[in-house]
Design goal:
alpha+beta, eight-stranded mixed sheet, 5 helices
């Protein structure tokens, strides 16, 4: 029952078409699934990833039209990392972000790795992180048809940063419940604030880290566009997931129980600072209902929603994802 690393991160957008344009044309990621929010089928759920959306490479977005901007604060997933192969790739990305007028900072060391912080068109907070000296969970494989050259392409998700007011409670869940181990720390970007604490799971490395930021000077986050909904961690298979459900329930955490997302199976629960965690299986994967060469080009619906396709499509604003 050892978690394998980060499975996916799900964020919020107010505009699916602009979101698709930014993440495919500027970041060069592949849209691997265009589907709907299974809890609200009137809105899109978009999945981006590597060539086939391997676990650990998936960045997803729920579209909520007209949602207010995210108000940054505690009890939040305050930073998402995207892995690239080496330090040289960060120089490519600095030039590319400038060419597309994307807000970014300078390249700097965070936790022993070079990183490049930037924000998307809705203020979503990212770090491009170099795998130059990284060891641990393997990266994915950039999509060959990406506008970004393969040697510079995004290869998956890196560390996820959590910002909390009381880190001890979150750390206890990470270590005592989920099995993370403390790895080290590094200086905060904010003067006078405590160091960022680093925890890892499984084989470790960039694809298996959670970074904890303590901030007692911030209000609670109000989620909106540019915010993050939840982070999911990798479970090997359904049998192990059911063991996790039993463990989380026995420990007294209110939780979702077993949830069939068709592309993976899940469990959801909140840690004490209010951040939503998901445990998700590595399979079956995203090529179960579409050919690999055509992933993301049309609206995919799990079998349990297929009888409602006509009604679902009628409520959705058209979103052209043909390539």
């Amino acid at each position: 029952m050892e978690l394998k690393g980060i499975h996916h991160v799900s964020a919020l957008t107010a505009n699916a078409q602009d979101n698709f344009k930014f993440y495919t044309e500027i970041l060069g990621m592949r849209l691997i699934k265009k589907t709907v929010n299974q809890d609200d089928t009137s809105v899109y759920h978009l999945f981006y990833g590597d060539e086939v959306g391997h676990p650990g490479t998936e960045l997803t977005f729920f579209e909520i039209p007209r949602i207010a901007p995210n108000r940054e604060g505690v009890s939040s997933i305050s930073g998402i990392s995207l892995r690239v192969s080496n330090d040289k790739a960060l120089m490519y990305w600095k030039d590319r972000l400038e060419r597309f007028n994307v807000e970014h900072e300078e390249i700097q060391d965070r936790g022993g790795r070079l990183t490049l912080a930037f924000k998307d068109f809705e203020g979503q907070r990212f770090y491009l992180v170099s795998d130059e000296n990284n060891q641990g969970v393997a990266a994915g494989f950039p999509w060959p048809k990406s506008p970004v050259p393969a040697e510079n392409g995004v290869t998956g998700l890196g560390p996820v940063k959590l910002t909390v007011r009381y880190p001890e409670a979150t750390i206890k869940v990470l270590t005592d419940v989920l099995g993370f181990r403390e790895k080290g720390s590094y200086a905060s970007d904010e003067a006078g604030q405590p160091d960022i604490l680093v925890f890892e799971i499984g084989k470790g490395g960039s694809g298996a880290e959670v970074h904890i930021e303590e901030r007692k000077d911030l209000p609670a986050e109000r989620q909106g566009k540019g915010g993050v909904h939840h982070v999911a961690f990798r479970v090997d298979n359904e049998e192990e997931l059911r063991e996790w459900i039993e463990k989380i329930t026995k420990l007294g955490f209110p939780n979702s129980g077993f949830v069939d997302r068709f592309y993976f199976k899940s469990l959801y629960f909140r840690e004490p600072n209010g951040i939503l965690f998901e445990l998700a299986t590595d399979g079956p994967g995203f090529a179960t209902d579409e050919a690999e060469e055509h992933l993301g080009e049309s609206l995919a619906l799990p079998p349990f929603f297929e009888p409602q396709r006509e009604q679902i499509e009628a409520r959705l604003k058209p979103l052209n994802t043909k390539r």
